[in-house]
Amino acid sequence: MSENSRDRGTGSAEYRGLFIALEGGDGAGKSTQSRLLAERLGAAGREVLTTREPGGTPIGEKLRNLVLDHGHGEIDARTEALMFAASRAAHAEQVLRPALEQGKTVITDRYIDSSVAYQGGGRSLGAVAVRDLNAWATAGLWPDLTILLDVDPAGGRSRRTTGSSVEDRLESEPDDFHGRIRVAFLELAATAPKRYLVLDASLPVEELAGIIGNRVDELLAARGAERSAS
């Protein structure tokens, strides 16, 4: 999959806002970095929307509970992929595009790459099939920047089981499942290096936040320069 084919679709460049996705295995620290980035941008006067997947809309949150909580019976791989895609379709249409049209910086905790990694890689449905399904579901809306927090399966499990935390249905899968996910994420990043920022999730939280913030500042400055010149 080439970078050009990976980036086909409407993208967010047609909108006033900037679209950022945080990706990585369970326990990578995405939620923490999403919060810290939003705080940094808010302090600089940027209007920011933080959201998550699956979820972000009323129907998306219901689907999140169905697909992640234990106790809903067997969910086969294709059904799982379609549930994530349905949640994402609502998210893109009802939340992401409107916010980008308003000029907001949108930060989402997971997006299409999670489905490609988890269902395409982890469930062995194939990266291309899952990518194409989600490209259709979102009408080709891709992030301007994808931040991949790379975590090994053992490290991720150690982080997410600290204290009283209980693993959800996907988190509780064996380490070989999470190993396939990690490989899939890294392969995705290799296809479009200009659009990815790959970081070692084991780095100190504040160090990661500084690297991410600097990269986003550069993107915002470049976007502003492009618009001034047009």
Structural notes for this entry:
It is a single chain. By secondary structure, this protein is of the alpha/beta class. The chain has one domain (3-229): Rossmann fold. The chain contains 9 helices and 5 strands; from the N terminus they run αβαβααβααβααβα. The chain has helices at residues 3-6, 30-43, 58-68, 77-101, 112-122, 127-137, 153-160, 175-191, 205-229; strands spanning 18-24, 48-52, 105-109, 145-150, 196-200. Strands 2-3-1-4-5 form a 5-stranded parallel sheet, with helices on both faces. It is globular, with a radius of gyration of 17 Å.
Biggest sheet character:
5 strands, parallel
Write down the secondary-structure element order.
HEHEHHEHHEHHEH
CATH level 1 name: Alpha Beta
What is the C-alpha radius of gyration, as a whole number of Å?
A: 17 Å
The first-to-last residue Cα distance is 31 Å
Q: Looking across the biggest beta sheet, what order are the strands in?
A: 2-3-1-4-5
Give the number of helices.
Answer: 9
Supply the CATH architecture: 3-Layer(aba) Sandwich
Low-confidence stretches: 1-9
What's the number of domains?
1
Strand content: 5-15%
The geometry reads as: globular
